[in-house]
Amino acid sequence: MADGNVYSSKQFELYIALQDKMGTVNATNDDFVKLDVVSVSDIDFGGGLVQERTLRSGQQIKKSTDHYVSQKGASASVQFEWVVSHREGFDMLMTLISEDTGTPFVRAGESSPLTYDHDGTATVGKFATVIVSNPRSTDDRVMHSAVLTELSLTMDSGSEGGRMVVGGTFYSGYKPEAPATNAVAPNGAQTAYVKTIYDFTTKTIASADVVLKSCSVNWTFPALRVGFQGGGAEAQQYSRSGEYALGGSLNVKYDANTDQELASFLAGTPKALVLTDSTPTLAISVPTAIFTGYNLDLGDSDEGVFVELPFEAVADGSANLFSITTA
């Protein structure tokens, strides 16, 4: 007889905790927080799996022995989207993507990646244990020594009540525990932190006030496993030597304070972008942004004409690529 249970994707939960050392699962309840996610993916087992399909002699059709599959040398990833509801979870994500230790989270142009080495005792990078909790308690997924390779932050007056939404991708070169019976019960502090686009009292491009409709900030910080160790041939190190990039977009009202940004785009003139509330309990600063487009929306809209300004952040020497303040 078929199993009568029908599971909802909303029954799956995401727990995260920072790790002190690469290669060691964090199982301390007080270190974990739950992200009440909009969505979370299952672990992408196939994306980093080692597989070979080679037709051998004896017949023209592949046999089962012509298929080779191994998790040795493999990697795994998990994607998520979260409407930010507590500061601790947001700060963890900012720590992972910035490699900074606390607010304001910054990344300077002269920064080099921290050390990502199995069981390393020197200054190490920022890792997390990530758990996808399954309503079937014996079918959880546990991914440890995970790094954050992508993070997006969006706020839109026409979506999610203007609240801050973050999404991203966790990557690990260690074999996930799946299926697993997870004993972790998240018990870390979760201080309410609900920020919206309407909280910004300062919205400026090069100190000129703008009327903001939506904004996004997107980080990419690539990671690849390097080498192998142990009986499972799990990662020995991570390489984070790819380009650390920050980009995004502002959607602002077209007026005398924004029409001049067409000339900035055409000339490659850098501009400082600042979004902050009055306290500030949330401040987003991109000191040197280069606009990569200037897109007027001339659709028939009663709210008037808006312009999209996609940008790429740059930084020279000790100058900051970005600064994110939480409080």
Helices and strands, with pairings:
Layout: E1 13-19, E2 33-35, E3 39-40, E4 48-53, E5 67-83, H1 87-98, E6 105-108, E7 127-133, E8 140-156, E9 165-172, E10 177-180, E11 202-205, E12 208-209, E13 212-220, E14 224-226, E15 237-239, E16 245-253, H2 261-267, E17 271-276, E18 282-291, E19 295-297, E20 306-313, E21 320-326
Antiparallel strand pairs: 1-2, 1-7, 3-5, 4-5, 5-9, 6-21, 7-8, 8-9, 8-10, 8-13, 11-12, 11-17, 13-16, 14-15, 16-20, 17-18, 18-20, 18-21, 19-20
Tell me what the structure shows:
With 327 residues, the chain is mostly beta strands. Helices cover 6% and strands 43% of the residues. The protein has helices at residues 87-98, 261-267, and strands at residues 13-19, 33-35, 39-40, 48-53, 67-83, 105-108, 127-133, 140-156, 165-172, 177-180, 202-205, 208-209, 212-220, 224-226, 237-239, 245-253, 271-276, 282-291, 295-297, 306-313, 320-326. The strands form two sheets. The protein has a 19-stranded antiparallel sheet that branches. The relative contact order is 0.17.
Can you give the mean pLDDT? 94
Secondary-structure element order, N to C: EEEEEHEEEEEEEEEEEHEEEEE
Largest sheet: 19 strands, antiparallel
Radius of gyration, whole Å: 22 Å
Structural class from helices and strands? mainly beta
Q: Approximately how much beta-strand content do the residues carry?
A: 35-45%
Number of strands: 21
Shape by Cα distribution? globular
End-to-end gap: 54 Å
